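The pair is set out directly below:
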Amino acid sequence: MTLFIAPDGEPRCGWAGGAPEFLDHDSEWGYPVGDDRRLFEKISLEGFQSGLSWRTILAKRENFRKAFAGFDFHLVAEFTEADVDRLLQDAGIVRHRGKIEAVVNNARRAVDLAAEEGSLAAFFWRSEPGPDEVAPPQTVSTSPASVALSKDLKKRGWKFVGPTTVFAFMQAMGLVNDHVAECVIRARVEAARSAFSRPC
């Protein structure tokens, strides 16, 4: 497994050295998240990333937040066709009609899901795999848990939530700790996961 030696002399996951902005690896990637808005933002951005580089999405993240009402899914659920047309003219985001419409659709599904399950966090964290279900870090792009969650979301009417997209979401939001063993951040993430109160 390739490692990246950061400016502090400590090893990181190899991909963290791909661009300066990838060092959000240290402060965000893999730490457990229980906030519904952040969870909705991440699964939306992962959908936008499909077929593109993550660097492109990171560079536009603040623009996405402005365009989609801070990813408050209750607000996005009220977007109309006129809003979709407006966003298609927004050069600050990825102007892909299908992906924009998917975020609006998914916001509506998220409102329903939060009402049914108590919160998005409670729903998503029920998909956290057990220790014996986790592959060695960064060796797979899907997992049985991401396949199952993808199927569940699609059955509920969500879009752009394939197993690879969902696995990337699970990695980023801390449902799995996919930092490689030698990465200095892995132990910090594991400590955060141990201290995290799973929503219910």
